[in-house]
Protein: Ribonuclease P protein component
Organism: Streptomyces humicola
Amino acid sequence: MLPAENRMRRRQDFAAAVRRGRRAGRPLLVVHLRDRVSVPPEAEGHTTDPHATRGSAPPPRAGFVVSKAVGGAVQRNLVKRRLRHLVRDRLSLLPEGSLVVVRALPGAADADHTQLARDLDAALKRLLGGGAR
């Protein structure tokens, strides 16, 4: 399970990651990454991170989008659990304060854990500067 401080729950956070973040698409999933943005001093008390304490960097947070196109409820929850487990193991790679949204594509329903891991690693590598495509 993903620790509570690393879970993204608010609609505004999902929107910020998807609209203002960078994106890397793979055959099974799309990963959106929004790096931490410097917060002006006057807005410091109005951060979107409910777990942030004043003066410390918030932890990276991840959210998941698994639509009905992936499959029925059982299949969607299976895909979401697999993705949560994979992201939990990769939290240390993410910059502090970053927002990550992992969106599963329909092919993720038929993919096994290894295939999802491979696509997630490739997308994160591209987003974090480990490769030029």
Notes: Residues 4-127 form a domain with the Ribosomal Protein S5; domain 2 fold (CATH 3.30.230.10).
